[in-house]
Amino acid sequence: MRVSDADRERVAQILHKAMSEGRITVEELEERLSVVYAAKTAADLHPVTLDLPVDGNAGVVAPSTSRAVTSPHNLVGGRPGSTSSVAVMSGTERKGSWVIPATHNSFAFWGGVDINLMHARFAEQHTTINAVAIMAGIDIVVPDDIILDVTGIGFMGAFESHDRGDVQQAPDDAPVLKVTGFAFWGAVTVIRKPRQAPSQAKQITP
Question: Which of 30, 87, 153, 183 could form a disulfide with 92 if both were Cys (CB 3.0 to 4.6 A apart)?
Answer without folding.
Answer: 87
